[in-house]
Amino acid sequence: MSPRSARLARLSRSVTFSACHRLHSKSLSDEENLKLFGKCNNPNGHGHNYKGREVPSILAHGVIDPVSGMVMNLTDLKEYMQEAIMEPLDHKNLDKDVPYFSEMVSTTENVAVFIWDNLQKLLPQGILYKVEVQETEQNVVVYKGEQTIVK
């Protein structure tokens, strides 16, 4: 197959996981945390069913293999998502059970970055396109691995 006839495709798979957390920054006072995070700063935490939205949680992209007809095997993607998302996050207290969040505020933005970083370790290089995490019907975060320049 010549490079001209190679076809690109995107594939997606979603999962739903349940977790609880408390939005609280150790860099702020209790009063500042309450003002910034409101009811989400409840000392006992609160829970969510995190899931994908119209565009599911994980979107991979790449060249369709001419032999298999796939960008990647969805069974493999399912296993990677189990290891990268479900095992560390499902039915966990993010702040207490996931070491990553011991020093990082467990916002949905940071949950998306955590998932991205975990999947990057497992997926073939360059195949991960984006991670989308829906915290509520109204709140969705999309992360594509972008980083800012450190000043």
TrEMBL record:
Record pathway: Cofactor biosynthesis; tetrahydrobiopterin biosynthesis; tetrahydrobiopterin from 7,8-dihydroneopterin triphosphate: step 1/3
One function term, GO molecular function aspect: 6-pyruvoyltetrahydropterin synthase activity
Listed GO CC annotations: mitochondrion
Species in which this protein is naturally found: Chaetorhynchus papuensis
Keywords: Lyase, Metal-binding, Tetrahydrobiopterin biosynthesis, Zinc
Needed cofactors: Zn(2+)
Protein name per UniProt: 6-pyruvoyl tetrahydrobiopterin synthase
EC numbers: 4.2.3.12
Biological processes per GO annotation: tetrahydrobiopterin biosynthetic process
Taxonomy, superkingdom: Eukaryota
Coiled coil (UniProt feature): none
Gene3D superfamilies, per database record: 6-pyruvoyl tetrahydropterin synthase/QueD
Record's function text: Involved in the biosynthesis of tetrahydrobiopterin, an essential cofactor of aromatic amino acid hydroxylases. Catalyzes the transformation of 7,8-dihydroneopterin triphosphate into 6-pyruvoyl tetrahydropterin.
Top EC category: lyase
Keyword Lyase: yes
Family under the similarity heading: Belongs to the PTPS family.
